[in-house]
Give the backbone structure.
Amino acid sequence: MSEQQSYEPGKHPDLPPPPNMVGAIGWIRENLLGSTTNIVITIVTIYLLYTILPPMINWLFINAVFEGASRDECRAVMAEAGAQGACWAFIGQRFQLFVYGFYPEPERWRVNLSFILMLAALIPILFDNVPYRKWGLRFSMIAPIVICWLLIGGLGLVSVPTDKFGGFMLTLTIGVTGIVGSLPIGIVLALGRQSHLPAVRLVCVAFIEFIRGVPLITLLFVASTMLNYFLPPGTSFDLLLRVLIMVTLFASAYIAEVVRGGLQALPKGQTEAADAMGLKYWQSMRLIILPQALKISIPGIVNTFIGLYKDTTLVIIIGLLDPLGVGRASLADTKWQGLSTEVYVFVALFFFVSCISMARYSLYLENKLHTGHKR
Amino acid sequence: MEATTQQSLGDRQPLWYRVLYDKETRSIGIQVLTISLLFAFFFYIIHNAMVNLEAIGKGYSFDFLWEPSNYDISQHLIDYSSRSPHWRAAIVGILNTLLVAVTGIIIATVVGFVLGVLRLSHNWLINRVVYVYIEYVRNVPVLLHILLVHGIIVNTLPIPKNAMMAFEGTLFLTNRGFYTPKPLFEPGMWAVLIAFIVGIGFTIWFKKYAKKVQDATGKIYPVFMIGLGATVGLPIIVFLLSGLPLHWDYPELQGFNFKGGLVLRPEFVALTLALSLYTAAFIAEIVRAGIQAISHGQTEAAHALGIKPNRTMQLVIIPQALRVIIPPLSSQYLNLTKNSSLAIAIGYMDIVATIGGISLNQTGREMECMTIVLLLYLFFSLCISGFMNWYNKRMKLVER
């Protein structure tokens, strides 16, 4: 009989867990092979990945051609290797076009400078722990005017007509203007919809429901074909400006609905308490109601912004040249015909990166503003 | 002097001050101002439009709708030729939009629910794969998806001569479209249809009856299996008994393209597929959020009562999750319908492409065409949201 160490009750040291319950093996057992269904799912998924991923990676990277002056050169390289792949050389050759559109070449520094200014203006708005934030915010107020001047020109700069705008720069112009413009209009519309004044409420509801009921593309058509009829005879209106107005109005109706959700989620006691404190309507809105309502609606607002940003691609249908439009236009060049997939993948990557950063920022903000008890 | 009350202080203000700062006056004033500004605005733009239209000699009339359209539409669900009037082109467009919307909504719902449930799976691998897929789809514009799918169909599928064959020659995949046999119905099919309707009616009645029995005695009938038997089995039996009143029209290669059969055009396939996969990613997130919103205590309570896991899902979790899911789901359906207007980018002939596109360009009647298109979309949206509101009300938590 082996000698047994005896312990007092409750004093026995903890034994290590069984080896197949921890570490890599334990993790696999738990997460991949937990039950029969689980095993089946794992096998099917691995099979799917095996059939989809390798060809995709081959096409995207391994067999892809990164340098060349025409599609035929790409083809020659691929024929030598005996494999099908993407012809990224095209993107490389037309990269400037994708970024700036047809913005005149000697003036492109203005676009670059505007981009840097935009980032600089965004930082103090987005993050509250940057030094000199107060001054930064003041700068952010002026920056849009400066950027507008830089892009359009005049007052000492060569003026650039807006039909030269294109590529990612156009996407950013429309997206950022829409985002900046739609938030205040949307908040006002949401307050109008909650108003006690029936006439104001009616107007806001009609506007919001009309805009939300029709697709953006029809509104853009209205902007491009019909708007001139509604203006005094002889006035002509810049197409980009019309698009900007339409996109802003469109997004503001959606923002209004999101903010209304936030307003409705607040207990009525908040408004009553503000009234009891003797605050006037705008005071109570500014100090009590909106800060809370907007906080609740952040995810919805950012989602609307992402939607708006993605919707900027629709402008190609009325003839503006965003990255997709530029890409399709350059595909008309006989040297590069038939590379549409490359263009789409490249533009998709751009949108994916921008949209996912917005989504991540929204998560960060939600966590930061979460003052309640989180489970 | 201290006796001066609040009221007399107020009285000391001049009359105009009291009127201006009175709550009633203000609210009436603001409303009158809003309405009059609105009227002034509408008067202004309508006046401008009238002046402008007169200047170029155009009126505002819908007479052009009865003129021949002079263009062809490749996919038409009703009889249509280039000699048909514009209003018929508009109806073809409406039907095409509805076809995409309905097919898209069905596929998106099914795929979305599956993805949403897989996203909650304990299996780490499928969970991650679905997550990556959803993030990719949601963060890329829908127009790009449509163009990409269309590009893949048109560029990588073979020409009809070397068509890709699937299912023993019943499905041909080509870059001109997908060809499948077309069912040709004979009169006996009516009996099958009637059997199907009877089956549905019986299922609805049986469901109510089973619920009554369950409420009274606790006995549970296999409602789903019996319903399935009534709605699917009964029509099949009638179909067999009435001597197979159906034969197929197979597509055949003639010259450069297939003849006969049922053809799904590449534009339709690309649009439906792209829209439904895009919307499915959003629906998946909605479903996941809805199921996660139900507190775990509900599952535990159901288990404590001895309800089996499957029935817990069916009786406890899903009915509650649906309440959270339905409002955002309805707005996704609306989005899908509205996004179908992107058809114009790949040349699928929906409302925007027919009446708002070619008809508009041919007749030069921008105002009238756009009015029709906008009103139609508003009508669709109101219908979908009306239906969803009705459904939502039915599902709503009945509170005391």
Observations:
- Chain A has a mean pLDDT of 87.
- Residues 94-103+160-369 of chain A form a domain with the MetI-like fold fold (CATH 1.10.3720.10).
- Chain A touches chain B through 55 residues (CB under 8 Å).
